[in-house]
Amino acid sequence: MSTSAAGSMLDVRDLVVRYGGVTALHGCSLHVDTGEIVALLGGNGAGKTTMLRSISGLVRPASGSVAFLGRSLSGTAPFNIARSGLVHAPEGRRIFTRMTIRENLDLGAYAVRSRQEADRRRQEVLSIFPRLQERLDQSAGTLSGGEQQMLAIGRALMAGPQLLLLDEPSLGLAPLFVQTIFKVIREINERGTAVLLVEQNARAALHIAARAYLLENGCIVREASAEAMLDDPSVVAAYLGA
Amino acid sequence: MHEFFAQLVNGIALGGIYALIALGYTMVYGIIELINFAHGDVYTLGSFFSLTILGALGVSGEVRGPLLIVDVGVTIIGAAMLCGIVGILIERLAYRRLRFAGRLAPLITAIGVSFILENVMQVWRGPSPVAFPAVFPTHIYNVGGVGISLLQLAVVTLAIGTMLLLEFFVHHTRFGQAMRATAQDREAATLMGIDINRTIALTFFVGSALAGLAGFVSGAYYQSTWFFNGFGAGLKAFTAAVLGGIGNLAGAMLGGFLIGIIESFATWKLGGQWSNVTVFTILVLTLVFRPAGLLGEVTPEKV
């Protein structure tokens, strides 16, 4: 029933990840095509974050493969994966709170050698997040949670990603910010960036995603179009709160 | 009153040397949370490298005029580069493999590296103090009744000039930003495309180069050096780094100058045998009452 992964932008096959004696992923496969938003749903501890961390190289899988744009990433250092256009905005935002907002954004474009290009991207990011504009030279630690999330996404965009991995971007945010964040993800996608989205807010994620995977206890138990997931009573009962 | 200012000037010069060494301690601590106990020995190595370079330049005493700037410049740059390379090698060979080994193993390794360097230097230059050429002319400037030697002026200028350069490097260059980002959150820095290994190596290079510069400065100041010099100076510079707030660059500079001045006054008022006691009492008091240091912020333990 799985759709073909051949020629996908991101192709994850039979991924097994172990932490010590505990197996976190039991041979998962998924793929993301060019221009797609794909949601990865599942309960706490299902392995969603581990999946993203093994794609971006922070976690070394025990077996299985990850390929991006047709090239295997096994053995590629995480910083080189980030430079290849596969950018991971990690759980918990992880912005540099002791640095200014401008510095955080500049660090996102660390691999970009040209000043003009970095400036151009900063202008673009600031057009998406005008709230950051006024506070460019303030310490990032002074931002609210929602603003920090904007900065985290903006920083990831500075790298010019072809594929963006987003881990729980709406976690802990006020409802107004949640709306903004989902709107922005859709906007980023419309500008041509594919997104693999991990979200506990499954309903909102499915509303912007084309396809979705369900992850349970380290196994992908279901793959379907976002519409099919929204119409599925068992999914609704388990993840969408009826 | 005269003596007071004379001691103050001496303390500031001494403090400049401590500050340069303390910067290396604090930079390395900031980025990998390791007290690099071999750092004091890299400083000693800097004075020996300087001696070798001065020898190659044919300098055995006072140099005057523009040639002074050339000779000193070549020596400083040479000693700093060589020490920087030694720093990179130490990190690569001794510390990198232990990066995920907890805190005790790297700490003990650092002490081991310190012993190795001390013994290598003892074999190289012998166990006795070695004379260092008095490069700077013994010119004394009279500033408001206080005599300041050209040497003291040079020491302070070099120390402060280097600190300003470092401040610029850390805050306004790409590598400096990468260094600060890595210090704050290594994993997040990786995700920005920053090569952590290279950044850490560069940090060791810069810190060790500063120690090399300090090695030249102290050689020129005391006109003598020996293989065990770095032990005492290293501990005092470490005290300076802790006093200022370890991990904090401005703190290391402030701490360095304070320790230099305090030591100078302790030697004057209490006698030379009390200078170490005074400095290490400050270390103990800092650790007990203000462990984050003067400029350090109290941060929750990293998870």
Describe the structure.
- In chain A, helix 3 (101-108) runs parallel beside helix 6 (145-158) and helix 4 (115-128) packs antiparallel against helix 6.
- Chain A has a single domain (34-49, 77-240), classed as Rossmann fold, CATH 3.40.50.
- Chain A has a six-stranded mixed sheet with strand order 6-7-8-3-9-10, with helices on both faces. A four-stranded antiparallel sheet of chain A has the order 2-1-4-5, covered by helices on one side.
- With 242 residues, chain A is an alpha/beta fold.
- Helices cover 37% and strands 26% of the residues of chain A.
- By secondary structure, chain B is mostly helical.
- Chain B has a single domain (2-302), classed as ABC transporter involved in vitamin B12 uptake, BtuC.
- In chain B, 73% of the residues lie in helices and 4% in strands.
- Chain B has helices at residues 2-32, 39-56, 66-95, 104-125, 150-172, 174-184, 186-191, 196-222, 229-244, 249-270, 275-289, and strands spanning 130-131, 140-143, 146-149, 224-225.
- In chain B, the strands form two sheets. A two-stranded antiparallel ribbon of chain B has the order 1-4. A two-stranded antiparallel sheet of chain B has the order 2-3.
- Chain B is globular, with a radius of gyration of 19 Å.
- Chain B starts with a helix and ends in a 14-residue tail after the last helix.
